[in-house]
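Bug #77: duplicate submission created two jobs. Keeping one. Sequence:
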Amino acid sequence: MQFHHFSPDGELRDARRVSDDRVSNLAAVVRTPDGWLAAQQEGLTGQSRDNPGPYRDTTTIRRFHLSSSISEPIARFAGRETYLLGEIGFYIYPFRAPVPQVVIGRDARIYFTGGDKYRIDVHAFDGSGSGDGAPGPTLVRRITGEVDRVPMTDAEYEADYRAQLARYEDRRPLQGEAAMAHAMLVNEYPSVPGAQFVPVVGRMLVDEDGRILLERLDLEPVAWDLLAADGRIAGRVRLPYPFTPRRLTPRHLYGVLRDELDVQYVVRYRLRPAI
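Kept job's structure:
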């Protein structure tokens, strides 16, 4: 595996090779001020065909030293529940279950939210060790808020089930794994429990100064809270659809916007109120 380092204008500055067969499925990579690369490594733990679940996604934060190519785990976080259905290993998530988010900030901090509460834990990289080979992160700050939980309804669960079935039924005739996956949905998905409450928070972005943009799934329509570096709510924004936010800076929000022909554009929005 190689990490390529580009300048802001796209020029390749250097490339570093990491020879570690344990390193795969890296979801995000951030260069920290102290000369390391910090990367999110996604995976599942405990899965077995003899046990349908639930399992937990895991996010391992690894760091890579650019001068020596050293790779080591520095933190692990539990993810969302996952079920394994049928002999083909068809993975499925409970309907509207919270999806924990892990973000590596450019301020060399790890930001974590479990999704089921209005809570963000901020960790430093300098953990002393968790006993399982990965140093435990040091909690340096916790941001919390009081919210009213919104209960899920049977009608919402049924609508999601029908929507998942429609994805396959629109592709008839079904063959191979698609047919088997459809059969798993029909026969086994109703046995997968759904969430009792709507998740409170979803996606999260962090800028260079520790400011946070936090998706509020419990609001209708969905909105995003702007949090100052000290954790106070500085404002709330609603993003256009279908826009996918990718990066937050102190003054702007960058992301991908799709038009009616599904053409993607990189766009930039100025955040108001400023944080």
